[in-house]
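In response to reviewer comment 3 from the previous cycle, which asked for concrete evidence that the modeling workflow produces usable outputs, we include below a single protein chain processed end to end. The sequence was submitted unchanged, and the resulting structure tokens are shown without manual editing.
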Amino acid sequence: MSASLDRHTLRFLEELPSAELGWTNTAPCPTTWIRQEAVTGLCILYLILNSDRLYGAMEVAGISNAEGRAEDPGSTNEDLPTAQPNLSPGRQPHGPTGLWETLEQKYLEFKQLVFRSPEERQKSLLGLLPLFLKAWEHSVGIICFPSLQRLAEDVSNQLAQEIQGALAGKPAEQARVAAQQLLWWKGDVDQAGYLLLKSVYVLTGTDSETLGSVVDSGLPALLLQCLYLFFVFPVEKDELFESDLQVQRMFVQMLLNICSDSQGLEGLLSGSELQALLIATTCLWEHSCCLWKEPTFCVLRAISKAQSLSVIQYLQDMDCLKISLQNLSRLADTLPAPEVSEAVSLLLDFVRDSYPISSALFLEFENGDGYPLLLKVLLRYDGLTQNEVDPHLEELLGQVMWLTTCGTSELKVFDSIIYPQLEGFKFHHEAAGVTIKNLQAFQVLQNVFHKASDPLLCTQVLSAIRTTWTWNARNFFLLEWTLQPLSQFVEIVHLKPAPVQAQFFQLLEVLVFELSYVPHEILRKVQRLIKESPEPLCTLTALQSIHRIAGGDPLFADIFRDSGFLGLLLAQLRRQAKILRKSGNKEAAVDGQDLERELTCVMLKTVATLLQRSVRNAVVLKDHGMVPFIKIFLDDACYRGASLSILEQLSVINAEEYMSIIVGALCSSTQGELPLKLDLLKSLLRILETPKGRAAFRVSSGFNGLLSLLSDLEGSLQEPPPRMCGAISPSHALDLTFHTLCAMSAALYLDPINSDFFRRKGLFEKLAEDICLLGCFGAPEEEAASLHCRAHVKPRPFSDLLSTAFSSSSPFPAQVRSCLQILSFLDSMARGSLHLQRDLEESLRGREEPIKGDQKEEVDRNPKCNFKQWPDLEERTEDGDVAIMHPGMVCIVVQLLPLLYHQDHPQLTREIQCSVASHIQSLVKSEKNRQLMCEAGLLRTLMSSCHQVLASNNHPLHLGLIRIFEKLASQAIEPDVLRQFLALGISLPLSTATKILSSSGRPGGGSGHPGTEVAVPGATESPTLDPPPGSPGAPREATPALHTALSLVSMTSPRNLQPQRAALAPSFVEFEMTMDGYGCLFIPTLSTVMGASAEYSVSGGIGTGAPRMFPPPGGLTFSCWFLLSRPGAVSKGHPLRFLTLVRHLSRTDQAFVCFSVSFCPDSLSLVVSTEEKELQPLDVMEPEDDAEPSAGRQLQIRCGQLLACGQWYHLVVVVTKEVKRNCTVSTYLDGQLIGSAKMLYIQALPGPFLSMEPSSFVDVYGYIATPRVWKQKSALTWRLGPTYLFEEAISMETLEIINKLGPRYCGNFQAVQAQGEDSGSEATPLVAEEGVSFGLNVASSCITTIVDIRNAYNEVDSRLIAKEMNISSRDSAMPVFLLRNCAGHLSGSLRTLGAVAVGQLGVRVFHCSPAASSLDFIGGPALLLGLTSLAADEPTMYAAVKVLHSVLTSNAMCDRLMRHLSGYQIMAFLLRKKTSLLNHRIFQLLLSIIGTAELGFGSSAITNVGIFQHILCNFELWMSTADNLDLTLFSHLAEIFRSPREGPRNAEVAHQAQLIPKLVFLFSEPSLSPSKVPTIIAILGHQLKGHFSIQDLLRIGLFVMYTLKPASVNEGQISMEGALDPSMPAGSQTSGKTIWLRNQLLEMLLSVISYPQLHLSSELKEEVFLHLGPDWFLLLIQGHLHPSTTVLGLKLLLHFLSAPSLRRRFRDGLPAGSWVENSTAGVDLLMDNLKSHPPAPEQSPCLLLGFRVLSEFLVHHVRVPQVYLIVSTFFLQTPLTELRDEPRDSLDAMLQWLLQKHHEEEVLRNGLCLEGALLLLEMLKATMSQSQRDLALLASALPGSSDFWLFPLTASAFLLLMKDSSRREYGPPFTAARSPRGPLYKWAHAPRNADCG
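The workflow returned the following structure tokens.
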């Protein structure tokens, strides 16, 4: 139950507030203490609640330990007496709960001792106190004692009795001793007083009820009386023991607990003890006890803080404050200042604490001369030597500051604010916060500052004043408008010490910077103080403060100017400048105390500050003529910074003057004045940040000045330095070089005028020359030295070398370090970032910082932001490439590259060279950077500076520089540079190629380098790269021709493969929206629509005709080539604006867009619009409705899937004008229609205007891409090629021709030759001259200026262009890129002069002239053929052909030149001389040139006829090659002719190339194997099927006749079994191979003639037959020919004779010999050129009766059953093409099959063929005229003709059947004859007599 009761008690204590329990701050409530100390409290609480279980085993030990601790007064536990409670035997308390229970029991026993004597009761009570204290200690302050109040009453009464007994009747000194003896710890003697004191101490800290019981005993007054005795009467010893201190703490804490209770406070006021104690603190300082001073003041302050009316009334009644003030006033001059201030602070505590309740004590303080006392006490601190502020002084000043807020009403002042004021200033009239109400109290502080001179005291006063401002900013104005403290302080501040002066002016700055207030009166007094300068140090401090204030806001520049302060400073500076000039600019001794120099320096800084952002002040300075005097200060380092700042501010009004001063000072300074130069350069850098400063720099010859600085440093970086450079060290020279280059970089940064000026004046070359002369670079190495310096180790990255060079502990030699650092400067200049590094030391530190992030281990140094980290080539993507701002700097690095070599350090410098070359190679990895470097002339620099490296294949730098050269040459290269480069690798002049052509074809015979026939495996796989030395499989030494060819391959190979075309990229204008968000081509004055009375001078344009009409009456056509490099965002993306036409009506403000063509990325659609829209910025434009913006005004075509990045496309928009206002808009992409629609045409006038005044006009201009008004940053980047606008709707045929001309065409379409035509053919115009509005091509462009445009063209256009470019119309410096209108010279109306590029960062122009194009100007095909002639091995031959492939497939001009020079014939000749070098790879290259290499995967059309005709069709060339290339060729030809899509086109080309005659000639080649014949014949068949030509047919027919043997040779006796014997030639007259070849050709001819897809007309068939003539067919049916030939010849003849007209003419007679006459048509010219020839006799044509001769020939072939079948088929007029798969066992079966297959309907319609019947009868007649014996003998002689004797029977039966059938009109007998066992069969097989006919 005890534990449960304790828990309830604890919960009750926790629920009660601490105030009810009486806990004070000094004695906290236990529950609160438990909450604060959570962990410890919970543990203790757990111990208490479980005391029975935990303390059961420790009860005896606990008491004994407590007894032991009672003997030790220094113990951490409270001291206990040795007397212990008398516990009953056998019962021990169990923990705290048991102790409290025991105490309760003992106390109840004590209360029962009613009849005992007082001495016994006292003894019994004292016996209980140790147990009480022990229980309290073990309960951690938590008392669980029900009789606590009664115990408190008994103990406090007992203590009161003891104290009264001790003090009664004794003098004060004895009473003090008695009280101390009673209460103090006395060791082993009686401890009754100590136990009572400690018990009461514990009881006063419990609750208010217990405290009330203590107060009722009268104990508070007695305790206060004891405190008075302890304080007033000192003890002999100076310090207290620990036990005494504990008693003192308990005594004071007990009084504090009593003071915290109102009842206890009343107990303290019951007597005069408080009055005596308070008065004693103010007058008895000499006799008081110092040990009790602090406790006494603590108790008095506790009484003060009680804030009780009774205390106030007591103090008033007892005159405590009045008497104390009088005492202090009397003793203030004699007592120490800290003690007096402490006493005054105690009195003010009573005043301050009582003021919220009653102001009585405050009034008593005022009436008791309290303020004079305060002033007197504060001034006592004046003159005291203090190292730090006395805390009593701070406390007293705080009391005084509080007194200033005491008052009943607010101060009434008038608003006296003087304007102007700062922007953030606001005066608050309402009293928000604490305000000043007591000026009398503030006057104390003011008088102290006036009278005091002590620094600490004055600064404390100023700090107190500043504190009042923090309460409320209004306090400053309340004080300044009444007492004017700061205004008065200014007048005396110079009399104060320096710290006070600094503090005061800081206070002044607080007004400005924190209160945002300008104290005009105070500032005027400060200016007067500066002017009078009574004290130099004070003047300096004041001026420094004014300098800081002036820099706070631009308003002060006007204030100090209007107040005359600026003029005052200028006058003082003029005086100082004159003094300095008279002294010869000799600096005084460097002394930090030289106030005059420092004052002058601050004045300069102040003037510089006043000039900032104030043009008027700069004008004042200039009007005062101060510029020459400011220049005087430049020579002194102390004044230089401020002087330069002043001059920099002057540059705002006159930048040219500033630049002339700075540049002049730079040029006139000596070598020893390095700090001056550096300061001037740093100042120059700041001014060069502005466009005006950069312009003035250029005008003032700033570039020449900087270059002169570098010239003066000649040899300064040399080791050891020469004598003339002794005045400057290498480190200083490098620092000066760095800042000079920084200034140069800043002058060029984003300034097109300066960049153009720097380039035009050749300053890049001058800069390179000056850098070379610095001394750290060496001389070009000897040629022999490079031969044995092959670099076998991969060089370190350039960034690593730079990090090492910039490291403070660099191991590199000094010269090498300087070289690397200068290279890093140039590299940063190339990227436009060097001027951002304002300090070389910063660069040094940045270089040493390690890289953080995922970088490679070997690249472990980062040059911070100053230098770009360059990763390896393999790790870089094009998007991550660094943009080159100044490519000329890279050219300088290349010029310095050979000079990096030092003979003293060959290995290191060689590594540096290779690293720099690798770094440059990484710079030109992106296409854009390559193009920039080409424009900068890096290729020419490489040839001039690195000629030796490029010429030496063994040089370590050779491969790297060659790669750079190849990459750049693939973009643009000048012909002369290319010529120089090619001359490096070809030792023989190219002009001697003809001699080489005559050399033998053996390997190596034409090279001139014997012994160099080596294989280059690397070249075969990757011909664009030379295998690195030392790699596996690399050659020891390749031929120079191979190196040259490989380089050309790399230069001419297309970088971006386009599946549609392989043409070279055109010159272009690139628009990039990343930086500025805009960039366009502005086309001024497309048209000017003039009013009736408008002046002609308002129109711009060029030409002599009338103004051009707009809109065009016949429609218009827009054509452009474009390439999308990088698309923008899909959502809210930047559109590709191909063309935007804008109109503006004069005398109006708004312009209107009337026609636009754009590609919208949001919808991936091409948008063509004729809607009138206002031209206004994007943020003003209303969002377009997704629906139709205006009905019939916009065409939207989705074509996003047709576009891909990196490919050139041809866009054409054709607007065809129709009736009224309608038009048809058709859009084409690469010649294919992608969309068409009807739309409304462009309206007549812009916008809403329906008419115009006679004197007004409409100006029409245009934009290509995005103008400034539509600025929108995006990732979009695209390029524009040739662009045209025609004022007519072109046809589809014209469009196809324009598309075929490609993007490099730069004409006006007035003299266009179709592609592939001879240059001598007549050119025709595609578009009328007057219909070409403009044509824009970068090839016709120039760099000009606005003034030049005005002079060359007209003023109207120059003004329009200047307005668009946002420059002056009189500007003559800004470079303007002008694309001339290439149609400007054509006849017709006025045209625009062209287009100008607008946008500095958004537009880039590139003149594309790659190596494949530049070759045309240095020999072109002749040079390429020369490489072929120099080829001595297969790799070289492959590379040479690869070059030819790259050039021919991309450059159409090279093909024309090849045809003009008969280059293909020459190449064929060269290849025949080097057939041993041909292989499959070269063959594939040739096929790729022709265009048929992608057979089955892409287009297989023949594009290069020359190669096809003269090389591929040169079968003599391929027949002699290895690897059966001829068979591969034949197979390929068959495939390309078989192609269903390109086959006809290829066949036509092959016909032009005379393919069939060449193939026919092959049949006479002895080396032709029979296995190739079928392929060749298949080629012939496909050729004729693809492109049928009678001439080709005649060639084949002629050869067929060639294969016929004379009549003396009976082919029937020749066996066909060995026809395919490879040992026998194909054309042998003694073998069956000729017959087989002839039959193959006849079968091919028959298949061609009967080819259904050929669709030969009857007229064409007749023409073919007549060209061949009847005798050609009849010759194939001669009797001595082989039956197979006869069958095929008869099929051919009867196929033609199936036509009735031919059959009739054949019957009537045709002239013979036509095939001979037609075949020799071209031979007459050759025969005429012979010297002598006999005259040809005139021959009359011989008519040949065809059927008569045919019947005679057929008589000889009656033994061949197929002849009967063919003639029967002809008889039935059945097409011979149906004779397929006929039976061959017997004639009867054949005829049966024919009767089943023939067309009955055709026979019924056309009837039977009479000629066929006659032929059959003639054959029957011939057969039947022979005897039976002859027939039998003939049948036995002929193999396979055992049933020959049955042929007449079968044929007769067939004819009889036909006769009967025809009589019955093909009735039942005809039908029955078609049965398998019909009458024909039965009749033919019936037994007959031998005599039967």
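The CA atoms of residues 514 and 838 lie 33 Å apart. We consider this sufficient to address the reviewer's concern, and the full set will be provided in the supplementary archive.
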